[in-house]
């Protein structure tokens, strides 16, 4: 029998074939897929659910024979009793939205309040019907009772409870959006002190529950979620480990996660505080060294041998990879092992002793030892003698001990010098510790909350952090203040409050003016701010000065700072139109970042994205895509800013390469992530709206949605930075292009004037970007002349001619090549009847585009197309139709496939129609009109047919002479990948 026929007959075989696909599904997709499978084949759905539940690694204790029997059989009638509640199911006031997770005995759904009284999202927990038993139902009720009386900020809140019409009980609890504690720490690259502090918070919650008579008994990372704000939430009080007391004082254990369970659990020991302490110890091992205290057991052990002994975290750390160590801010596995040796070893090992009596007697005692380690006080688990206690006293009271030591050391030769060196080292260590504590308690929370919270709330957090920093530093710790101000400025930068960030950085640089490292650090951060604000000359100067003063030392921090300075220097040069000067700097920085390894992967991704932008601009699209794909491989959700920027750049590159669907998916993913992580009004969300607007315009051909997205981006940038910030330059120019394409010429011209004003204020009047904006304004004026008559039309042509003459004059005076303006001058000249001068300008445009093609391929293609089109219109004015046809054919040879760039194909067809009409060939004109209609209908260009060429009436603008302008349909010739800071 074939595998395929076996799968059709055996539900387990088919479920196994489906397992990988379903196990990887997002929760929302899983919910719908299971509901559909259940209606199609209930037996296969039941088998698949059992496999998914087993994948959760829960060991079940109640009625083992019944459990195993149920794994291989369906209900009496051959149909599973499992039921998935489909999306939209109502349970009291709650409406099911999808599955969050499947466990050994329960299903957790996402749900929302649907009775209209108020809005709330919850996690709704149920018991799986195939494991329903009186014991489990009583345990479920016990969990409801316990949760109802536990009110602690780190314990999930119970909102509601009830029973479905089919008799299935449910609990509606606070829904927590967060990561398991071990994964959160790894994503944040949290150091050991941060990890221990989080476990202290867990001990607070567990200790509170113990004080109220509740034993958790299923402590594991997936039940300890950390929110975006860095707060721990304790979940799942009892579905898999709740007790069901009976009158005789006995108990029934429902289940436990075997990897975190103490040995006595499998020998039938009653629930105890010691079991929770053991589980906390295993979690501590996972946080410290990503290892288990003992070799892992099987998933369903009914008896456990006692031959293996727990190993110290420091010993296990030597078996880890350097990636594990670096995720904990240690250079390698050896350095991590040294950091764990001593007190942390003692605390972790005491938690997981085989003998419950040898463990901590309470979670409160464990918490006390963890706090003692954080505060450098003696740890009870170490049980050290007077020398150990003395060393901890010296570390904790280093200032007082150092002062006393001065009296002795100063009496010996060279004692003062030695003491000073010791004192400097001690102060630096204390500064590091104090700053770490401040960041954990205030700065970190302020920075995280600044992403999605309102401006007032996040500003308050940052202001409070600044007050605490200044109080902690006082007058005696200027280095602490200087370093803290840099960290605080980063929080303001994340919040896009660049004014406050610059204020703090300038103060930090003044305080540390005699410290080269501090100066270089501040210069790097300031250069970043100045690049964002388009103050490019200052940014380039500060980045260069930072590289000059940075001392040559052998350390990762020094290398990372040098890379950041190189990055900001390259960005400044790129934004100042010096792509050739930026690329070598980026190449050197990328080599250095690769050499550092995983600790520099986020910065390496930023460097690769910047190089991809420049490479694409220079016409090396394939190399640019390779850079972006590599950058994506280094990133995950722990670096949302860089990840979304890479997605957006790759989206635009994909659209330009003809993959409109793939590009749009990336743009949509970046927008969804930005809204979730940063909130609706953050600058990064504004960038994401801008990118998806380009996708709707160029990829999906939906100008209405593109305009909506651009208005969203504009609202965000104006609210964040004001109405004249350079980040608005591209948004407004794209809005102008859409307006012109839709026939709203006056609105388009007004918007383009605004874009020119913004670019002039932000970048200067005579950089290439601003000169191209002015050139685009002239094109808009020429296009608008078609819908005008009499003096208004004359004024539009005259205004365009003046703008173009000034562009050429300013470009020549400042050494900027502006040959593209010669092509646009052809239209006003033809309107005035000066065909000879128009021909001269067209030749100059062709020569300028030919000279730039090899150096600047990204814009040279568009410039060359415009120059050829200008010469074609000159030949039409001269009635040299064969020459015009030859030029039209040369344009066709330059066209990409139509699906990649339908805009250029549409423009080509318009030119062909004009040639046919100039020749007076009615048959060719009718056929060409139909071709234009076809391409317009296919790609959504119908609005461009009106106002440009009147196909219905059978006439073109030649009838009143205005077709001599030679303009095309698209005003915006800006680069496909944004150049804004």
UniProtKB/TrEMBL annotation:
InterPro entries linked: Kinase-like_dom_sf, Prot_kinase_dom, Protein_kinase_ATP_BS, Ser/Thr_kinase_AS, TPR-like_helical_dom_sf
Pfam families on file: Pkinase
Entry binding sites for ATP: 125
PROSITE patterns given in the database record: PROTEIN_KINASE_ATP, PROTEIN_KINASE_DOM, PROTEIN_KINASE_ST
Annotated spans, Disordered: 952-981
Keywords assigned by UniProt, alphabetized: ATP-binding, Kinase, Nucleotide-binding, Transferase
Basic and acidic residues composition bias: residue spans: 957-975
Record domain Protein kinase: where: 94-374
PANTHER family: MITOGEN-ACTIVATED PROTEIN KINASE KINASE KINASE 20-RELATED (PTHR43289), SERINE_THREONINE-PROTEIN KINASE YBDM-RELATED (PTHR43289:SF34)
Name of protein: Protein kinase domain-containing protein
Organism: Lysobacter hankyongensis
């Amino acid at each position: 029998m074939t595998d395929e026929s076996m799968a059709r007959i055996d539900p387990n075989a088919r479920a196994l074939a489906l397992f990988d696909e379903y196990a990887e599904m997002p929760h929302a997709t899983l919910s719908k897929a299971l509901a559909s499978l259940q209606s199609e084949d209930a037996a296969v759905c039941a088998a698949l659910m059992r496999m998914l539940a087993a994948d959760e690694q829960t060991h079940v204790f109640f009625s083992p024979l019944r459990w195993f029997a149920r794994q291989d059989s369906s209900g009496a009638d051959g149909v599973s009793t499992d039921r998935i509640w489909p999306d939209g199911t109502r349970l009291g006031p709650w409406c099911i939205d999808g599955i969050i997770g499947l466990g050994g005995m329960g299903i957790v759904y996402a749900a929302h309040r649907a009775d209209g009284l108020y809005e709330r999202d919850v996690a709704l927990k149920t018991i799986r019907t195939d494991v329903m038993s009186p014991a489990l139902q009583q345990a479920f009720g016990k969990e409801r009772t316990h949760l109802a009386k536990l009110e602690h900020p780190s314990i999930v809140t119970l909102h509601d409870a009830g029973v479905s019409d089919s008799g299935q009980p449910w609990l509606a609890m606070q829904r927590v959006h967060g990561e398991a504690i071990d994964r959160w720490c790894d994503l944040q690259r949290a150091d050991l002190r941060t990890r221990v502090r989080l476990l202290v918070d867990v001990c607070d919650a567990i200790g509170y529950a113990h004080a109220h008579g509740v034993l958790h008994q299923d402590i594991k990372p997936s039940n300890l979620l950390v929110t975006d704000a860095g707060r721990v939430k304790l979940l799942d009080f009892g579905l898999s480990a709740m007790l069901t007391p009976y009158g005789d004082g006995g108990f029934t254990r429902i289940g436990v996660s075997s990897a975190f369970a103490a040995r006595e659990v499998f020998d039938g020991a009653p629930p105890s505080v010691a079991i929770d302490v053991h589980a906390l110890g295993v979690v501590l091992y996972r946080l410290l060294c990503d290892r288990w205290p003992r070799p892992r057991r099987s998933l369903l052990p009914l008896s456990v041998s006692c031959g293996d002994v727990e190993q110290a975290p420091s010993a296990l750390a030597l078996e880890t990879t350097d990636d594990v160590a670096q995720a904990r801010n240690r250079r390698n596995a050896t350095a991590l092992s040294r950091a764990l040796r001593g007190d942390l070893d003692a605390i972790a090992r005491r938690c997981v002793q085989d003998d419950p009596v040898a463990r901590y007697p309470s979670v409160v005692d464990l918490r006390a030892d963890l706090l003692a380690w954080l505060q450098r006080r003696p740890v009870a688990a170490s049980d050290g003698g007077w020398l150990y206690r003395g060393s901890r006293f010296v570390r904790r009271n280093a200032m007082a001990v150092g002062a006393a030591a001065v009296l002795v050391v100063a009496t010996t030769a060279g004692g003062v010098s030695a003491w000073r060196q010791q004192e400097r080292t001690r102060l630096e260590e204390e500064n590091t510790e104090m700053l770490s504590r401040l960041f954990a308690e205030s700065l970190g929370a302020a920075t995280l909350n600044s992403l999605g919270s309102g401006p007032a709330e996040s500003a308050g957090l940052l202001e409070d952090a600044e007050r605490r920093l200044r109080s902690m530093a006082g007058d005696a710790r200027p280095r602490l203040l200087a370093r803290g101000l840099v960290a605080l400025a980063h929080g303001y930068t994340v919040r896009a409050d660049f004014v406050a960030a610059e204020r703090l950085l300038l103060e930090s640089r003044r305080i540390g003016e005699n410290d080269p490292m501090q100066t270089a650090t501040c210069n790097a951060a300031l250069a970043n701010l100045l690049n964002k604000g388009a103050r490019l000359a200052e940014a380039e100067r500060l980045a260069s000065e930072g590289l000059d003063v940075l001392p040559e030392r052998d350390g990762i921090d020094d290398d990372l700072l040098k890379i950041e300075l190189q990055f900001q220097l390259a960005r400044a040069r790129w934004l100042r139109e010096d792509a050739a000067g930026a690329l070598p700097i980026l190449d050197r920085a990328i080599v250095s970042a690769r050499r550092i390894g995983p600790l520099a992967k986020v910065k390496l991704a930023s460097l690769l994205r910047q190089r991809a932008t420049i490479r694409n601009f220079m016409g090396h699209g394939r190399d640019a895509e390779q850079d972006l794909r590599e950058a994506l491989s280094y990133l995950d959700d722990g670096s949302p800013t860089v990840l979304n920027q890479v997605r957006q750049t790759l989206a635009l590159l994909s659209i330009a390469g003809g993959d409109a669907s793939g590009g749009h998916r990336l743009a949509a993913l970046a927008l969804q992530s930005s809204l979730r992580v940063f909130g609706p009004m953050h600058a990064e969300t504004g960038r994401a709206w801008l990118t998806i607007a380009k996708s709707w315009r160029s990829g999906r051909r939906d100008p209405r949605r593109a305009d909506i997205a651009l208005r969203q981006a504009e609202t965000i940038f104006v609210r964040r930075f004001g109405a004249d910030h350079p980040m608005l330059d591209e948004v407004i120019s794209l809005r102008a292009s859409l307006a012109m394409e839709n026939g709203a010429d006056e609105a388009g011209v007004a918007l383009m004037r605004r874009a020119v004003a913004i670019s002039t204020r932000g970048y200067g009047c005579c950089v290439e970007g601003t000169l191209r904006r002015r050139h685009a304004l002239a094109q808009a004026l020429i296009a608008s002349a078609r819908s005008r008559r009499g003096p208004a039309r004359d004024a539009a042509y005259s205004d365009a001619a003046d703008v173009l003459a000034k562009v050429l004059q300013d470009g020549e005076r400042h050494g900027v090549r502006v040959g593209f303006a010669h092509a646009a001058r052809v239209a006003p000249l033809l309107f005035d009847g000066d065909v000879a001068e128009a021909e001269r300008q067209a030749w100059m445009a062709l020569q300028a585009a030919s000279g730039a093609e090899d150096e600047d391929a990204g814009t040279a293609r568009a410039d060359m197309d415009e120059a050829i089109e200008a010469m074609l219109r000159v030949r039409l004015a001269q009635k040299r139709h064969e020459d015009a046809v030859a030029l039209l054919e040369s344009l066709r040879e330059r066209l990409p496939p139509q699906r990649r760039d339908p805009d250029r194909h549409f423009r080509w067809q318009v030119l062909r129609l004009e040639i046919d009409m100039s020749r007076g060939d009615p048959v060719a004109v009718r056929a060409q009109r139909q071709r234009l209609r076809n391409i317009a209908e296919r790609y959504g260009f119908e609005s461009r047919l009106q106002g440009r060429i009147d196909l219905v009436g059978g006439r073109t603008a030649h009838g009143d002479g205005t077709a001599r302008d030679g303009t095309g349909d698209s005003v915006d010739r800006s680069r496909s990948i944004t150049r804004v800071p």
